Amino acid sequence: MATTAAETARNYIGGEWVDASGDETFETTNPATGETIGSFPKSTVEDVDRAVEAAKEAYESWRLVPAPKRAEILFRVGQRFIDRKDELTELMVREMGKVRAEAGGDVQEAIDMTYYMAGEGRRLFGQTTPSEMPDKFQMSIRMPVGVVGAITPWNFPIAIPSWKITPALVCGDTVVFKPARDTPMLGARFVEIFEEAGLPPGVLNIVHGGGETVGTALVEHPDVPLISLTGSREVGVQTAKNAAARLKHVHLELGGKNAIIVMDDADIDLAVEGILWSAFGTSGQRCTAASRVIASGKVYDQLSSRLVERAEAMKLGDGLEDDTDVGPVINRAALDKIHSYTEIGKDEGAKLLTGGEIATENGLDKGFFYRPTVFADVDPGMRIAQEEIFGPTTALIRATDVDEAIRIANGIEFGLSSSIFTRDVNRAFRAIRDLNTGITYVNAGTTGAEVHLPFGGTKQTGNGHREAGQAALDFYTEWKSVYVDYSGKLQRAQIDAVETPAP
Ligand code: NAD
Description:
It contains 15 helices and 24 strands. By secondary structure, it is an alpha/beta fold. It has 2 domains: 16-21 and 38-254 and 462-481, Aldehyde Dehydrogenase, Chain A, domain 1 (3-Layer(aba) Sandwich), CATH 3.40.605; 258-442, 3-Layer(aba) Sandwich (Aldehyde Dehydrogenase, Chain A, domain 2), CATH 3.40.309. A 7-stranded mixed beta sheet has the order 15-18-19-14-13-21-22, with helices on both faces. A hairpin with a 6-residue loop joins β6 (127-129) and β7 (136-144). The longest helix has 21 residues, at 100-120. Residues 1-5 have low confidence and may be disordered. Residues 151-156, 178, 180-181, 210-212, 215-216, 219, 229-232, 235, 238-239, 253-256, 287, 388, 390, 416, 457, 461 line the site of nicotinamide-adenine-dinucleotide.
C-alpha cells in the first residue's frame, strides 16, 4: 500500500514507491472536518526527470505489447476498481468532500471508462480505402505517441485520471501522472490499482507536488510529447504557452459557466430538480455546474420561489452522513473566492434571494461550508453571470423567448455544457443546433455525461480536443497513412491515374 491515513506517501516511479529528491512535504486535510489525511512529497524537477526517464524506457516495450493484451490489464484494473469501490468512495468523501453518492458515482465513472477503453484494445480501428491506382492497397493505422503528462484537478479525483490514463495506456503510450495538490491520496490509490493489476514498471508513474514546479516541469520536459490537462482557464493558457516552444500536443479541458434554460412550457417540477442537482451538487464544484438559470418571464417567479424554498431545505454537512445534501468546498481559498462573488453580485445590483454566507453552525466551522446561494434579477453582463465561481451559487436571468435565452446562454467566453427544459420539440431542436457548447441536455440539468460520448467544450473551455468515447483516441495516437503498391512499377499519384471510362 502506498499510504494509509496521515502516513507519508511517496512517488511511484519505474514500478517502485520511492522517496522524492527533497525533504519538503505538504499535507491534505478533510475539508469537512480538518482531519489530516496524509503527507506527500513536494517533488522537484529532478523527480519529474526520473519519472519521465522511466516512462520513456517503458514506452519502447509497452508500445509493442499487442493492444488486446494491454487491454487485458485494463480489464483487471476495472475489476479492482469494482472490488475497492467502497473504500475509494469513502476516501473521496474524506479527502475531497463530495457526498457519498456522488463519490460513488465518481468511482463508477472510472470503472465505466476503464472497461470502455479496455474494449478499445480489440478495436482501435483505422480505415482502408480504395486507391486511384490499380494494384495498390491503402489504409490508415493509429500509432502511439510516447510519454503522456497527465495533470488533473481535485474535483473528480478518480474519474478524471481515468479519462486520461486509460485511453493513453490502451493506445500504447506511457504516463507520468501529477494529481492535484488537494487530492494526492486518491491519486496514489488510483496508481496502486494499476500496480495490483500487473501493469509493467514504468508504464504509469505518479509524481506528487505543485503545479508551478511538477506541472511546469512536465509540460516543458523535452521527452513528453503529449500533455493532457484539466483545470482552470488561467492554468490552461499558461500550459499552452509553456508547451508551445516544443510544439507539443496539448489537450486542455477548462472552465465552464453553464446555463439551464427553462421555457414557459417546461415541466417545472423536473426543472427544479435539474437545477438543484446541477447548481448545488458537489457544492457547485463541477466544470458542468449550472451557475446560470435563464428562465422565461412567465415561469421566472414560480421557479425562483421554488428554488429558494428547496435550497434553504438542503442540509449542509460531512458527506459521510447519510442525510447530507451539500458537502464542503475544497479549501479556504475556494470558500473566500465564492464569498467574494457574493459581494460582487450584491455590488453589481443583483438581488440575493438566499444563501450568500459561510455556514458555521453545528460544527460546520471546522470545515469550509457555503450555503446554497441564489441571485435573482441578474443582468447577463454581470460578473456573476460571466465568470466561473466554482461554488454553490447560481444566477437567475430573465428571457422573453427561446431566441433571447439562447443568445444569453451563448454570451460568455466558455462553452462546456448547456440545457433546456421544454416540452416543445421544435424549441428543443433549435437549442440543440444553436447552443454553442460541447454538450447539450434536453429536459435534464447540465451534468451527467456518460463515458462513451465525447466530453469537452467549445470556445475557451478547451482547445478543440475531447475526452471519452472514440474522440479521446485521436489525442493519444497519431494517424499513419500506409500505401502498399503491388503493381511492380512506379505509379505516380495524381499523374499516372487510370483513364476514366468514356461516357
Ligand atoms: P487548477 O487549474 O488550479 O489546477 C489543475 C491542475 O493543474 C492541478 O494539478 C495543478 O497543480 C496543475 N497546475 C497548476 N499550475 C500549473 C502550471 N503552471 N503548469 C502545469 N500544471 C499546473 O484547477 P483546479 O482548481 O484543480 O480545478 C478546478 C478547475 O478545473 C475549474 O476551472 C474547472 O472548471 C476545471 N475543470 C474542468 C473540467 C473539464 O473537463 N472541462 C473538468 C473538471 C474541472
